[in-house]
Amino acid sequence: MKIHIQLIYTGGTIGMVKSAESNILQPFDFKNISDNIPELNLLDCHIDTISFDRPIDSSDMNPNHWVEIATIIEEHYDKYDGFVVLHGSDTMSYTASALSFMLENLSKPVILTGSQLPIGDLRTDAKENLITAVQLASLQHKDEPVIQEVGLYFEYKLYRGNRTTKISADHFEAFASNNFPPLVTSGVKLTVESHLLLKNNSIDNFNAHKIMDNRVGILKLFPGITPNFLQTLTLSTNLKGLILETFGSGNATTEPWFLDIIKTIIGQGVYVINVTQCDGVRVTMEYYKTSQYLLS
Q: Of 10, 34, 154, which Cα lies nearest the Cα of 87?
């Protein structure tokens, strides 16, 4: 039985080619994708494509677009064996993370990928990323998808989507997953780390959560932060969640005014989450005294 893959184009560098007339980059029609990447015909799968009505730069990505992607997957979930989402690299990690929580009881692959260079560029990384992403989405074992989660594939590695971060705008190796190893590494052959893959063992049906709340803010702490700067957060009546990017293993200033303002924000019903600014480090609020105050 032939595998059916749906390719979802949201925008981004990967979908650009140079116009023959003006030599200017412009989006190409993904309905004719095999004309630009004939190697896809070598894969034992059938690919259908769908694009946003207005493809966007990933810098313009927002929760409404996440809902649009989730809706496309929901509406076509029973028809396809896997999904590949083409996305600009700047906010790809945000989208991969969001989709991993929006798509509940997922038992099929949703692979995000993109490129650093346009698909029409001589040195493009787009072809390898796209071809391998489709191949990963079509992997089957005993008539079941090998990958049953949201992943991000870039430069020979498939990562768990919600563990990724973009680390470079200049290199092909643009993403990293500091706290979790790659799920698959692409070399002469695909090396699948089966013991790391998520498996959907739930008896419940697939469900796409599409009610999003953007009343969440991020505050990156820095030496010299002032009461007036932080006080503005207490004036917001719409804030529902605040993510504190703290130092080291979760440390913050112990100035009384800082702790008082955080207590006021929590008293207003705002959920406050402590994450670290450091890559590859976990928050351990019991380790230093400067973080223990946030526990009280």
A: 10
Residues (pLDDT < 50) of the chain are none
Contact 175, 155 (CB under 8 A): yes
Residue 287 has a pLDDT of: 58
- How far CA 151 is from CA of 8, 43, 93, 112, 250, in Å, comes to 14, 20, 10, 6, 27
Task: Show which residues are catalytic.
Answer: 13
pLDDT for res 31: 66
Residues 118-170: tens digit of each pLDDT = 887 888 899 999 999 999 999 999 999 999 999 999 999 999 999 999 999 99
Tell me the sheet residues that pair with 184.
158, 192
pLDDT at 234: 84
